[in-house]
Amino acid sequence: MKYNTYIFDLDGTLLDTLQDLANAVNYAMRQMNYPERTIDEVRRFIGNGIRLLIKRASPQDISSEDYDKTLAIFTAYYLDHIADFTKPYDGIIDVIKTLKQNGCKVAVVSNKADEAAKKVVEDFFGNIFDLVIGKMDRFPSKPAPDSVLYVIESLGADKAKCVYSGDSEVDVQTAHNAGLPCVGVTWGNRDVSELIAAGAEYIAERPQEIIEKTK
After folding, report:
1. Which terminus of the chain is less hemmed in, N or C, by CB atoms within 10 Å?
2. Taking the domains of the chain in order of start, what are their residue ranges?
């Protein structure tokens, strides 16, 4: 195979988390007496981590104090309801298993809070991934490449044989900032046109194409 290390985004790539995120956003909005957001609005807001998600979902004139309160409400609710509707995309588990059977290393790099990222990956995938990194203070959020570069170093991987897969322009930017090619997946939270415009080297319209397009 051309690549032997596959690094994945989480939300919109491995897991369909949109409904649970939208429910948590709107719970926080209701508690703060703010207007609720449609699921399509939430779809557009995600991709840069929960801090920006709540910033985008809240009124523009929100105070710093109320923002912190809204974020805390969202976070507590989401951790309690993190898997109410969340599920792996059809076929994605088989792809990860196939990669492992072929001797590849697989990892997750997400802007989801590290605790939440590790929890949902373990819940739905067990311990199949070699490394899971969520948002933590030691790394800036994607599209900064720091967390991806840390994964490559930790796995002892050859960067020339690494590829990153994700569903948004943030993921394409992350891959390129780390010096990696990107597989843009079309079943997540962005349109294929956005992935192409961002410069994704490969486009996968179904999970199996992550392997087929990168052989």
Report:
1. C
2. 5-16+87-212, 18-80
Q: Look at the domain 5-16+87-212 and name its fold.
A: Rossmann fold (3.40.50)
Determine the Cα–Cα distance for residues 215 and 213; give it in Å rounded to an integer: 6
The CATH fold of domain 18-80: DNA polymerase; domain 1 (1.10.150)
Which residues are paired to 16 by β-bridges?
A: 87
Continuous segment of H or E residues that includes residue 195: helix 192-198
Helix or strand run (H / E) with residue 150? helix 146-154
Please indicate, yes or no, whether the overall pTM of this predicted structure exceeds 0.85: yes
| Residue-by-residue DSSP string for 59-108 | -TT--HHHHHHHHHHHHHHHHHSTTSS-EEPTTHHHHHHHHHHTT-EEEE
Beta carbons of 134 and 166 less than 8 angstroms apart: no
* DSSP symbol at 11: B
- pLDDT tens for each residue of 75-120: 999 999 999 999 999 999 999 999 999 999 999 999 998 999 999 9
